[in-house]
Amino acid sequence: MAETTTLSPTRPRKPRLRIRTVVIAIGIVAFTIYAARQSGWDWGSFVTVWTNPLWGRFWPIDWEWVSDRNNVLDPLIETFQIAVVATVIGCLLALPIGFLMSNLTTPNRPTFVVVRSVMNVIRAIPDLLLAVILVAAVSIGAFGGAIALTVFSTAVLVKLFSETIDGADPRPLEAALAAGGRHTAAVRAGVLPEVFPAYVAYSAYVFELNVRASVVIGLVGGGGIGRVIEAQRQFFRYDRIFGVLIVIFIIVMIIEQISDAIRRRVL
Amino acid sequence: MTSTIDTAPVDPGAPRTPERPRPPVAKWWRLAAGLGVLFAFLWGVSGLDITAEQLGRAPGNIWTIIELSVPPDFRAVLERGALGKVFESVYIAWTGTVIAAVLSLPLAFLASNNVVPAWVRIPIRQFFIIVRAFPELILATIFLAVVGLGPWAGALAIGFSSVGTLGKWSSESIEEVAGGPVEAIQASGGGWLSGVRWGLLPQVFPTIVAHWLFRFEINVRASAIFGLIGAGGIGGEISSQVQFRNWQNVSAVLIMVVVMVLVIDAVSGAVRRRILAGSDRGSVDASQEALGDLGGFLTRRRERAAGDGPSTS
Amino acid sequence: MIEFDDVSVTYRGGVKALRNVSLTIDDGEFVVVVGLSGAGKSTLLRALNGLVPATSGSIQFNGTEVVGAKGAELRKVRSQIGMIFQTFNLATRTTVMNNVLMGRLATVPTWRSTLGLWPAADKELAFRALERVGIVDKAYVRASNLSGGQQQRVGIARALAQEPSVMLADEPVAALDPVTSHQVMGDLQRINRDLGITTLINLHFLDLARSYGKRLIGLREGQLVFDGDIADVDDDTFREIYGRAITPDDLLSMDAASGG
Hints:
- The complex is a heterotrimer of chains A (267), B (313) and C (260).
- With 267 residues, chain A is mainly alpha-helical.
- Chain A is 73% helix and 0% strand.
- Chain C contains ten helices and ten strands.
- In chain C, helix 5 crosses helix 6.
């Protein structure tokens, strides 16, 4: 028998970069350069924004002013109240709407489509834009801010919540329907227990978002500490603003810890 | 076979065995939590200083505005260059996200426990937390004072602020990468940097790019808001139109903003899914991203429940 | 009384799960349904309580037409039919009690069940059902903390709480070990005998079918191929229903395989 040694197959060539990949990469780079130009790119400012003497105004902190309750504590309380109200109402609304928005628990197709579309549109509205409009409409800063944040909270929570429901176990729901329950009762008995921990966790998350947002909302006319910050900014009193920011930071940290603890307990 | 089912008719006179258990105390804990929320809510409402009369008038006010906003006046708004402003917002968001991506990538590696020791990682993690705690809008106002009015202040603000979130998400993704390839490289004599560059980066890069894109979606919304304080973009239009109570213009601009956001969300979302599907990690939906903000906690739990298991060995 | 008249079920992908099935079941009967996976056993049961809509034909349940029934009418039919599932279908994150109370959903007003304010009479029924299956001490235990056999008993209690006239069991023991399987089959047998509840059971294991069944229905590719007394059944009958020889996988216990 002739011994033919079969050589290893010819070495494959390294796959050439696909034309498409190259084009996309060039496109992205070109777009980035264009966008940067349009945004007013300025290499120098990367340094100058941090070395500007303005930052010197942050120190020393005017603690005396900060500790006067009229200046900081009361507005902070108002900010907090806006966040609480917005979160509670938003979460209450998000519970039924979330069920309507999930494939698993929606009562019928048209409802599903309508609710989903409406909520997606609302979620696309930046929260502060909504706040500006509502504050002008309702003409009371804190109230307008609260409404805007409520709408925002509902939209955010509803999206998270409905995605959880989509992933929930459909079988207890089947059993509840098989026993003759109406749709709402069956969802309540069969699906809610399973998704409730996630609902609570998301609600805590939304509360955190709202606390941060309600601080900022004051900058554009909603009530609370934001208004104070804006006022002080106009006088360049960054030493006071810095003090306020530190207080806010501490509070947000505390809330995050509590929120984490709730989540650990609940999940 | 002994049956566990007792089908004998129940004699009401006979003693019932075994004892029926009572409802557990935990039920009261939940009731307390519910009451707590209720009281917090009432406290919140009280502080808002709204009279019942104002509350009653509000829906009417809002309805009036809605009536005044229809039909939206696109012609007037486009004449004022609103479309250009919309694009400007996108450019600001994109530029800012690029800046944040470049800055956050190395920092993310320096914040991962499978790359650096704790004494490096912890300060950088703290840095992320502080950056995230600083409200973006306030940073933007400071930058406005330094670089002047216009889009650049907004882009810088977005760029630096996003470093915190992107750093956190990226470092968490890096930590989730299995250590195998890095070990292999180091076993064959490669240095630490090579291990990171060839072992970690290729594996985690798709996920990180997905994070960038998701942050871009958020930043588009932020850049629209920045316009309100003069940092470029469409927000300025809304601000002035609202000021003059041109509600038809307001609704037109609002619709344009919504369309912009929806389009970007759709495109970015599709690209993200494409990238992640290619990298065999499945899709990252909005809830997982938000959960990433919650410390990856829920995501890992869900993955474990689904049988994937954490990918760290 | 249950009457299937020329019932066909075609799923949306075009799969014909049931083909022209006709049969009658009298009150109080104990019926076992066997067939390969995909033969239509599950569809047969689910067509009866409307979980799966029948494409054609008629299903009469105590005089009410199930095919096409909607809303309150369908719920009334379902409330009289208790169903237990292969995977138990319990709400695992809540208590056994809440699961059993699901059996009362048809009669309790929605607002009451939503808020958890169950009437005392319904709670009494739930307790009695738990007592009948012998796990009342676990009433407030989280369902996920129970063993498979216990979870299935909760499922049975949930069905019993409905005070049904018919009990459907879709492969109730497929996820259980042999000892527990025999327990559950015995329980279902006693429920049928002592409470007079018409019982329809899908079974995968042939030796169980032979041990416990009285009337046997065989399905093959959606068609009714056997309907008769269990005494008339032998290995050849099973081979006809299954279309192949019997394998050890079709039997619950290895002893039956080697001994039979």
